[in-house]
Design brief:
By secondary structure, this protein is mainly alpha-helical. The chain contains 6 helices and no strands.
C-alpha cells in the first residue's frame, strides 16, 4: 500500500491528519511543531499499553506501513530513525511481560510485522535532498 504524503504542499498538519486516519493512531491534540518522527516514536511507545482488543495484526499493520512509508520516502533524520527503531524494538519484549485482561502475549503474525519493520528501520538513512524539512 502506497501512502501519498503531500508534505511539501500541505505541510505537517496534513501529514499528522494522514497519520491519524490511515495509521489508526490515537486521536488527540497533536502539536504541528512536533516532528513527525517524534509522533511515530510516541505511537510505537504507546503500543504495549493499548487495550488487548487493539493488539491485533489488523490494527498494527497500518501503523507499521505508515512507518515504512515515512522511512522509504526519506522523511526521517538518522536520529529520528534510531528513535523510532528503539521504540519498535521494545514492543515485543514489553508485550511478552504483559498478562492482563485475557491478553497472553503477541502472536506470530504480530511478531512478523514487528520483525519486518525492525529490518526496514535498521538500514541507516542516506543523505538525499528529497527528505522533508518539517520538524
Amino acid at each position: 500500500m502506497d501512502i501519498w504524503l503531500p508534505l511539501h504542499r500541505e505541510g505537517p498538519g496534513h501529514a499528522l491528519q494522514i497519520l491519524t486516519n490511515v495509521g489508526e493512531l490515537r486521536r488527540g491534540d497533536f502539536d504541528v511543531e512536533k516532528s513527525l518522527e517524534k509522533v511515530l516514536e510516541d505511537e510505537w511507545a504507546a503500543v504495549p499499553g493499548r487495550p488487548p482488543t487493539e493488539l491485533t495484526p489488523d490494527l498494527l499493520e497500518p501503523l507499521a506501513e505508515v512507518t515504512k512509508q515515512f522511512r522509504a520516502l526519506l522523511f526521517f533524520t538518522e536520529g529520528g530513525r534510531k528513535g523510532v527503531l528503539g521504540r519498535v524494538e521494545q514492543v515485543i519484549s514489553s508485550l511478552e511481560k504483559r498478562r492482563d485482561d485475557g491478553y497472553d502475549g503477541p502472536g506470530d503474525d504480530f511478531r512478523r510485522i514487528i520483525n519486518d519493520l525492525r529490518q526496514t528501520l535498521r538500514v541507516p538513512m542516506q543523505s538525499n535532498s528529497r527528505r522533508s524539512t518539517y520538524r
